[in-house]
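It is worth pausing here to work through a concrete case rather than discussing structure prediction in the abstract. The textbook approach is simple: state the sequence, then state the predicted structure, then interpret. We follow exactly that order.
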Amino acid sequence: MFRRHGSYRRSKYRIRRYGACDEVFLERKMRTRNVLSKRRTRVHGEELGRLVLSDADPDWEGAWFLKRIRIRRFAPAVQVSYRRSARVAETAMGDIRLTVDDSLSAIPAAGLVFRSGGGDIVVRDRAIVELKFRVATPAIFKKLVEQFVLEPKRISKYRMAALALGLVHLPPGHSILDTDEGDAAVCLPSCKC
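Step two, the predicted structure:
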């Protein structure tokens, strides 16, 4: 969803694959004022064809996803690829996670098929850093924010990809990084960490 309006405002739907794995994940991320929840179902890549059947099996694990994308009349528009480095740790206040995504590229979607090759680079010389935690900001994250003078910004990889491919356009004077309806993250110069 590029422009979030009405009932489309809180939820984001995607089909995710890691590398060339045969398994894919049907996902819905839903945000309310203070809570982000994710529903995720793992299916085999060959089962993606079920998302276009008119009489899909209601007992299939992905039936909930199919129902929601049909109601909203969603169809794939962009295939987004990136390289992710992730680190996790356990703290007294729960698990924390740091991800760094770079080499963000995009190609127009080819239906429900993952195409090989990353496509056009969307953002050069930048990485997207996400600091994920449940309760209070962990001390190590506070130190990272302070040391690198990080400022949170809402970033959507999908919106950036749609803009780069010319599927939508921004008003004059806006940047591809002005895609403020994504997750809280930081976009900073890319480095080899």
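Step three, interpretation. Residues 63-72 form the longest helix (10 residues). Residues 76-193 form one domain.
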